[in-house]
Fold each of these.
Amino acid sequence: MAGAADPLLDIRDLSLDFASPGGALHALRDIDVTVPRGRIVGVVGESGCGKSTLASTIIRLLAANARIVSGEILFEGEDLAKASEHRMRELRGARMSMIFQDPMTALNPVRAIGEQMIDIQHRLPGSTADKRRRARDMLATVGIPDPDNRLTAYPHQFSGGMRQRICIAMALLVEPALILADEPTTALDATLEVQIVDLLKELQREQGCSILFVSHHLGTVTELCDDVVVMYAGEVVEAGSVREIFHNPGHPYTQALLRCDPGRIREATRQLPTIPGALPDLADLPRGCIFQNRCPQAHDRCAREAPPRHRVAEGHTASCHLLEQTEEAPA
Amino acid sequence: MRGATHTRAIGAGRHRPHALMQHWRRLRRDQLGVFGLVLVVLMVGSAILAPWIVPYDHTELMTGGRLAAPTWDHPLGTDQLGRDVFSRLVMGGRVALQVALAALTAALSAGLVLGLIAGFGPRWLDSGMLLVLDAVRAFPVVIFALAVVTLLGPSLWTIVLVVAITSVPIYARIVRTQTQSLRNNEFIQAERALGAGTPRILAIHIMPNVIGPLLILASMDVPLVITMEAGLSFLGMGVQPPTPSWGTILNDGFNHISNSPWPVIAGGIPIILTTLGFTFLGEALRDIFDPKLRKDV
Amino acid sequence: MSDPLLSVDELRVRFRSLGALRALVRGVRDPYIDAVCGVSFQLRAGETLGLVGESGSGKSTVARAIMGLTPSQAGSVRFDGRELRGLPTRELRRLRADMAMMFQDPVGSLSPRLTVRALITEPLRIHGRTEVNLDEEADRLLDMVGLTPEFGGRFPHQLSGGQARRVGVARALALNPRLIIADEPTAGLDVSVQGEVLNLLAHLQRKLGLAILIITHNLNVVRHVTDRTAIMYLGRFVEQGATETIFRAPHHPYTAALLSANPEPDPDAAHARVELHGEVPSLMNRPPGCEFHPRCPYARELCAHTPPRVTEAGGEHRYTCHFPLNAHDMAAA
């Protein structure tokens, strides 16, 4: 990926387990993700792939039964996996902030949004009046009409799209280096999604922060992101620039995913392609490649050994045995 | 909500052990719950098997004398007529069990029916029923009991009637609230779309989802009911001598407290044990059946 | 052309927004929300119609009004020639056997305490079809939707989204309906399994000659599985016609906006993006004139005060716009 020098966020070999009565669920395994400064990286995958878990792990908002088994989360040089809770709290809402999927429940329903926006600036210098002004300016920037009067309004008085804009405003108010966006447009209608995506693009350009954008919607990721990481059942199967991945997908899962997207299919058809089979059991993983039971090109080797990461092109890697002619990517 | 990805139950494809086994395993892990279960089994068992396990006939006057302190022969002493207190208490358990069973069954049934109707029917019916139910609940129990006793005379069934009637409003309200929250759920709409009539929807689709929490609540009300019975019998409105009831034993003990404290202490023990047992068991059951309270995954 | 199986004409659905007393106190003369304002369309056997719109467009309300789950205030709904509105409950129940609905939430629309087997055979029991062997029927229906008989013993919470959808289809088929209304059949499903449900519906349609009404916001899906499409905005159809035509040359600006709002996963795709201003207005504050004008990038003076009439563009293609796009043969009004 471009801009590899001194990335903002560098996740290496991250593995995470969830404890459960039926055994440990290996939700994330050997994850490698790099977010360069000032770039938007998309994390794409379907239900159960672990993309939301990844975002939650970075900011460490995890359930009690989650445990980081190994790996590093290097953020501005510091390993978050080993940081104390106190340190994480210092970072949250200062160096990194998060936008959640459901705007309906992401805001405190019993406090005015102005109060919430002033609250979130508690670490920043300045008087309350200064903070109120910054909040008002930010509301205007994200496109809330009549911001002066809206500061005293409550979340339920806004529509879903407006609420998500407010959440974005709050995430950006503290001028973080990294924004984690967990499916922020999934709950919104298509025409609203378009507006939010454009807004994010514009604001990112202005502020220069990095965004990790989690989504299952391939089209949105193509619109917004510079680089993309494809996840399947807890592993990263492919990573590269958006252009590379969509024009030249290396991993059979990515290829299948693109094949199945009805938006990509040129000819109208009554027989839509699917990926047959089901996700593997995270508590009882198969030996070898994680995708073997659904891969149209699976062969003997896939069942014996897990494929290493292979280089498909400059800055583009995928984990598949079929790519073996190309050199192996550096660990 | 548009496009919300449905997080597939991880392991939904795996073979799940039978639901009952899972519940039993969870119960075993809750130590207080197990303790409660043991107590309940003890109390209910001794009540059922009472005639066969009492060491003495509870009406027999003992040679040990009256108001005797506990001895090996009479572990809880004797009462003012010389009867073995332990035997009387065990027999008294039968009264307590009968009252609890009869009263709660009646209250549950009536509460279920009324609650379903109030929750599913039109607004005006709901408002009307709530008015009546709240009025009943607001009425002081003891005064109500006095009125009933005046009409029907003191007896076991008088107590059952009083307890049942005063418990109905609470159960009805719970059922009503649950029914109301379910009635707009998609699966109810789906059933209506299939042509299911109201009786079918209530009986097959709403009631089974409502009855679980109700039963657990009722089990936690058992000690309450028994205490009510004890209290009303204490005031002379319940079973008459020589039938033993925990309340009358307490009453007798109270009357002779200056002579010997033992009957009062003894009379309190089964009430305490039953309360503890049912409360712990009920709470454990509630935790098991309420998925939101589960601590493990 | 054969008679349509379902014929909807000027259907209107209103909801009370305020109780009678409060409306009186606040001086609100007309405390109603018009969720559906005069919707008309036809559906023939063996045909699939897509009803497309965003939240608040009224598309789900139309479906529920057709099924009789929501009362409608005006218009006509004719099924197989018989008027459904105003039909006594007993008659309606019998007709319900011919129309089946699949609901949006795949797991939530299944009664949680019943097994899959019981759920699938519910319709048979409700309609008193006791002469049928229920177990055999259950197996037959499960097979039809591609589930093994083993699924019969499972409970809804033990099913994945895709499996629950199939159970919904099986249940809908139990009484051999002639019409299936599918409310957001792909909502909550991953792209890789969406096809399973849609392919299944297409296959069943071919095999059984079903008429299918698909309600969705997902235009990509509509393009592939429907014969005709209708686009809804604030309770009205703004455009309807053959799917092919609508996708190739949309006439209404909202249709064009919806089409361009579905970003293609192709970074080099040329994007003629039609971006809309603002958000969908509340149903209680309907804009005057053409209701779409405050958001329309092509709105002109006329649009603000005169509501456009329905224009026929030949071949069952209709739209409601003063200044349609792609209408080379139309002179601007």
Amino acid sequence: MIAFVLRRLIQSVIVMIAVAFISFLLFQYVGDPVSFLLGQDATPEEVREMRAALGLDQPFFVQFWYFLGNAVQGDFGMSLRQAAKVSGLIGERFPATLELALVAAFLALVIGIPMGVYTALRRGTFMSQVFMAISLLGVSLPTFLIGILLILVFAVGLGWFPSFGRGDTVQLGWWSTGLLTLDGWHHIVLPAVTLAIFQLTLIMRLVRAEMLEVLRTDYIKFARARGLSNRSIHFGHALKNTLVPVMTITGLQLGGLIAFAIITESVFQWPGMGLLFIQAVTFADIPVMAAYLCLVALIFVVINLVVDLLYFVVDPRLRVGKAGGH
Amino acid sequence: MKKTISRWLDSDVGYSFRTSPVAIGAAAIALVCVFCALFAGWVAPHNPFDLAALELGDARLPPAWHADGTTKYLLGTDDQGRDILSALIDGARISLVVGVVSVVLSVVVGVVFGLLAGFFGGWLDAFLMRVCDVMLSFPPILVALLIAGVGRAMFPNAHETVAFGVLILSITLTGWVQYARTVRGSTLVERNKEYVQAARVTGVAPSRIMLRHVLPNVTGPVMVLATIQVATAIITEATLSFLGVGVPPTSPSLGTLIRVGNDYIFSGEWWITVFPGAMLVLIALSVNLLGDWLRDALNPRLR
Amino acid sequence: MSLLQVKNLVVEFPHRRGTLRALDHISFDIAPGEILGVVGESGAGKSLTGAAIIGLLEPPGRIAGGEILLEGQRIDQLPFDAMRHIRGRKIGAIFQDPLTSLNPLYTVGRQLTETIRAHLPVTEAEARRRAISLLQDTGIPAAEQRIDHFPHQFSGGMRQRVVIALALAAEPKLIVADEPTTALDVSIQAQIIQLLKKVCKERGAAVMLITHDMGVIAETCDRVAVLYAGRVAEIGPVHEVIHQPAHPYTAGLMASIPDMESDRERLNQIDGAMPRLNAIPPGCAYNPRCTQRFDRCLQDRPELMPAGATRAACWLHAAATLETAR
């Protein structure tokens, strides 16, 4: 098992380096790296010094090393658009995105899994078909449209929820949270629901498909033949076997929430990293893009690792070796 | 021709289609959309891009069934007097074109890579599979946005065609992976069969083997994937256009229209957003339904 | 009184091109404690008969006629809840593939105690005690430790022993064993069959042993039923059916078993193949392949009639019936 963990760690490092490399390419070759690092208002002396320090005449890998060194410390230079340090900008936006993603993930899981189980167990019933229709809608409706519709109905039409911003936040050291105020919660509802719907749909379909597969297996057939109650079979056996693969796939998908948040943040003007990224793309603000890429890759890699380790914990087949015997 | 049609109708797939009202309905809607898209010039009542024909006085009119609406502009007008219905049809055309072209390219790229990886194996296979793994774990929106962003940085005064090219490229790059995987799997299975080994021994070119034997076996799953991906591609394009980094503003797609309309929600002119939105959903929904039906029809276990 | 009575069982599969009749008026009895073999080619309907008896026919298959009686009570039309109390408690089942019959995520002990407690009012501790003793009876060494192992930690033969233990856990009176050794190594097959025979005799449980292997039948069974194209061709005591087969099909089967002693160059075969379910000929289903057929065979379907020490569905023995009637 140690071997497995080590192997995965090495793989993760390799992926991070590859991503950093792509970031580096962006940084150095799409636009001017000196102005990225110093901002637009640098004096010619500073520019000259920086050029020397960067060693722009140095071999490729030296430059890459320099970039890596900076990146590991979180220094990605200055934003082209906002004349502020990229790391500062991202740091200040990170909590907003993370909170949004977590609330949305919670919603997606808490609603998606039961819906999936229900549609698998009660195939063909009316409610089940309603859920499947809703899921189809969820996949056909782009996230931004869901957001707009929700705003139309609940903010403009009914006036129940606000349609932009984060509301009142509380500062806990470096982290600013909106979850400690009622106003904060009021503001997070619509964006979280928007973000959650697509994931919810995917989770529901996944759980349903997996559960239907499991219900067809020989061990479920044998469990029925042993006269176990429906409850034992469905919730004792089938559910557990369903959740194991679902858990891993879902974990990976939830990482995608961070990226999907881009869209939601745009629609709701939610002051998170995603909004920052979109603005960066629109204005070709390379340093911010590079930094975002690396950060998101890091989050993904970490989630991947955690999910793999979780698999170990949950599936006994991976844990203990075969004992044999006749 | 008639014989082929009647044979198809009588097959299991045909039977499934005939007896599924949902499939027939979805196919009908999709056909209507495709028709409108192809013949937008004739179908649309107005030309939304003819700047000369726009009358600012007609701006922001509500749909025809409202008190202030007229039948001249069935679904109302936007802030510049453009007829929403025409803009809708035109936008649908752009969305569909971008979606279908991207998917076709994805399929080609994916199938080629899958065949190569499966057939030649070795480091090529390992490398491609790592790439697939990494790409699959990143959400497509992110990849598409990145490419769009880089494209903007590299071509700051982008020509229309370049903008389209970058857009199609970004959607293609997020889609090819699934086809590569599926085709690779099938290629691996076929490659180990004896008739393929015999062909290799007698010197038949690998490309011929791949084309004649592996390809026919993967058409089913690839078609299902492709259909569902058209819907995804359309939605991705709409999202990118909504965010402002998709189609160039001179050729507004449904996403662009929605973005424009978004600014007017709060002043009560909901139709500028809702109708393009509805059209988008309609197209995506019918394509998704077709894809779902196709997958169920081709799945032997569910028959 | 018979333990199990199957009377004129009909099982059909509705299909869009018509209805397929997979079992066509099957009748047989099983006495308490006896071992009945059910033998036939692939597709003859053996497994379906077993599935129908335990009420686990896969839809769209359904029982379209006839009766199944357990200790005099009809069980073929019971609602799910009533049937589930019979499964496991009155009738146990063993399936072919031990690798897939056990849930990989639960320990063997958990699966055993769960089955025991689903049917018998015992405490957890008592159930565990019984589980250990069951494992010991089925020949699992170090049962007290291995009870907490997972299925993947057992070899194929060991797993089938666990499966047998599970089937016997709730003390049923009849075990339906569907090809219990087909998926095992030849060297293990004999052990498992012996084990099955031993534990069932010890507990006074009857067995319906479904297989295509005549050798197993010869070694284990008291009586045997030969199935052909969804019908019973012959049924009788094992020794008589094997050595004095009354039905030409049974005779053909016996003759096609290779004989180590004889010096032949070609194996005996029955010409032709079993007909497909949608192409069963009128009259006797075997008539196209029968070397002794005559006119009546092509027109009237024969019922099971006495033929020496066995009963066979063959018009050759109609004369015998008339004889004894006179």
